[in-house]
Structures are given as C-alpha cells and as structure tokens.
Design goal:
The protein is built from three helices and eleven strands, in the order ααβββαββββββββ. By secondary structure, it is α/β, with parallel strands linked by helices. The strands form four sheets. A five-stranded mixed beta sheet has the order 3-1-2-4-5. It has a two-stranded parallel sheet with strand order 6-7. Strands 8-9 form a two-stranded parallel sheet. A hairpin with a 4-residue loop joins strand 1 and strand 2 (55-61).
Length: 360
C-alpha cells in the first residue's frame, strides 16, 4: 500500500513514466520560449564594431549574448544630448566606419531621436537595413547623416516614415557624394525646422518629395538647398508653407536649376530673403504665387545676385515698405532685360542700395 501511494510512478508501469517525462520536456520548451520572448521585450539597442572591416552593426535584444557589444540606449532617447551619436562613441573615431548594418532585430526598438546618428562618418560608403528603424516616435533627425561625405546612396524604403519628426535641420548636410534622394515616404505634419537640410550636397541631381511633404509648419528655409550645384530640377509643387519667417540663402548656389515654382508658398511672415536666389546662374524663370508676400521683409541683400540667365522679372506684387537694404539685389544679372515693379515697390526705408543693378 505504501508503494502505491508514495512510490515512484515508474514503478507501476513504463507507459506512465514516459508520459510524465514527455510532459516535463514540453513544459521546459515553453519555459525556454517564454524566457526568449521576455529577453526580446526587455532588450536594449546595442552596437558592435568590426575594426578589420570597418563595419558597425546595430542590433536589439539581450546584450549579454554579445560580449563585445555596447548599449546605446541613451543615444536614441536623449534629445538634449547634442554630442551623442552612435558612430563616434562606439569607435572613438567615426571616420573608422565604412559600412553600417542594421539588423532586423532593431525594428523592435522605438527610438525618440535619431539626432546625429551617423554624423561625421566621413568614410561611410554603405548603409544596410534602414527599413529596420522604427520611426513612429522619432522627434528629431537633425544632422542624421551630416558630413557623410562618401555616402553615395541612401535607401529608406516605404516604412521609413516621419509623422512625429519636428526637425530635419542639416539632415543630409555635407553629403557631397549623394547623387539622388527618394524621400517619398517622408511626411511633414510635425516638421518645423529644415534649415540646411541639403546644404553642401554638391553632387545631388534629384530629390523626390512625396505628396505628404507639404511643410506647412516649417518656420525657416535658411540654406536648405545651399550649395546643391548639380541640382537641375526641383519639384516643389507640393510645398505649401504658411509659417515661414526666414528664407535666407534657400537656393544659394543652385547653379544648375533652370526654373522654380514657388506658387504654393505663403511668405507673409518672412522677414529676410537675403541671398535667396544668389548664384542661381542658370535660373531662367521663377513663378511667384499670389501668396508670395514681402510685406514684412527687411532684407533683400543680393536676392537675385548672379542670376545670369534671368531675362525678365515680374515683381509687381512685391511690397517693400519695410525693406531696409537692397544692396546688390540684382548684381550681375547680366541677361536681365526687364523688371516689372508694382506700386508698392518702394525704397522709403532703404538705407543701402549699393551695387543694386551692378553689371546688369
């Protein structure tokens, strides 16, 4: 009786013993699976660097499994840490990185900032896996690829969206080897700043904006396309800014652009248009819409200077009552044959008109 009540189950028959061992194995399997799931949920973003190949790899998960990995959680969640960026910290010198690989596991992480993520990776040639960055909560992409001067291609994919991003300032600044950009997945509903976004992209020939990149809330377009010397066409037909206050050097140095359509721009709050079209030497036509207002503009210094291909300008809707300087405004517009001024084009407040029509 004692054995029947308290003895081993295996003593009463082999089939029962096998059943118990099977049940135990199944329970162990699910316990292990549960442990892995919990590790994934509670994981961290980390990087590893292969100095021999110059490859930086970003992953997400249990960092304990990677003895040479470094936790970079703080880099993606501290908006007020201007010197935080992945490349420099993991390698001590961002110039050592030639390739970046973002693994599929990284999609499980939700960063709030990509600020300076690859800044100054000046020898970076290739990035794989940008589609594995979850961007639904990202607030800043400021200087994300700043000075990645050897990067020739960036492939974002349709999943790389920007619904909460408020700053893209200097995002591609100094990417002097980039030849084209497809930003059709980008939207601008939260975007307020894009100053110098493409500044110094001297080999960029085309930029594709999507229908949802309308920049209504953007306040400054300073230097956005400054130095994009090879950009021959620029479709801004979807742009409809209504919050602009500054347009200094927006198209400065766009020496290959032939025409610009700014018909959707509302500039009623803009205070400076200094160097707006400076050195657009092949620009032949500019389309200003009815909302392209200059009522609050104070500075028009060199606004059209060195626009050597312009033959005529219709400025009949310009109100210059508050403008204080028009120095070199049409300087070196050597093909300009006619300018149409309206009744509100006044120089009453202007204190400097030096070289306004020089070499016209």
């Amino acid at each position: 009786m004692k054995n029947k009540l308290y003895g081993s189950p295996c003593q009463s028959g082999g089939a029962k013993c096998k059943w118990i061992f099977t049940l135990f194995a199944v329970l162990c399997f699910f316990a292990a699976l549960s442990g892995k799931t919990m590790a994934a949920v509670g994981g961290v973003p980390y990087v590893t660097f292969d100095g021999a190949t110059g490859t930086l790899t970003l992953s997400y998960g249990d960092i304990a499994l990677e003895p040479n990995a470094k936790d970079v959680s703080g880099h993606f969640n501290k908006l007020n840490q201007p010197n935080y960026y992945v490349g420099r910290d993991i390698c001590s010198d961002a110039t050592k990185i030639t390739k970046v690989v973002i693994e599929p596991s990284f999609i499980n992480f939700e960063p709030t900032t990509l600020n300076k993520m690859f800044q100054s990776c000046s020898n970076l040639i290739e990035i794989e896996g940008l589609e594995y960055i979850t961007t639904t909560k990202v607030a800043s992409m400021t200087s994300m690829f700043h000075n990645c001067s050897k990067l020739q291609n960036i492939s974002f994919g349709s999943g790389f969206t920007t619904p909460t991003v408020n700053s893209m300032s200097a995002m591609f600044m100094g990417c002097s080897s980039l030849q084209s950009l497809d930003l059709s997945s980008f939207s601008s509903e939260a975007l307020e700043s894009m100053s110098s976004m493409f500044e110094g992209c001297s080999n960029l020939t085309s930029i594709k904006f999507g229908d949802n990149f309308t920049i209504e809330k953007v306040k400054s377009l300073d230097n956005v396309f400054d130095g994009c010397t090879q950009l021959s066409t620029l479709d801004l037909s979807k742009f409809a800014p209504i919050s602009l206050t500054s347009m200094e050097s927006t198209f400065n140095g766009c020496a290959s652009i032939i025409s610009l359509n700014l018909s959707g721009f509302n500039t009623s709050s803009v205070t400076t248009m200094k160097w707006l079209f400076f050195r657009c030497s092949k620009l032949k036509t500019i389309s200003f819409g009815s909302n392209f207002k200059t009522d609050n503009v104070l500075d028009m210094t060199a606004m059209f200077s060195n626009c050597k291909a312009l033959t005529d300008l219709d400025l009949s809707q310009f109100n210059t009552a508050n403008v204080t300087t028009m120095a070199a405004m049409f300087n070196n517009c050597s093909s300009l044959e006619s300018i149409t001024f309206g009744n509100n084009f006044t120089t009453a407040e202007v204190t400097s008109m030096s070289n306004m029509f020089n070499t016209c």
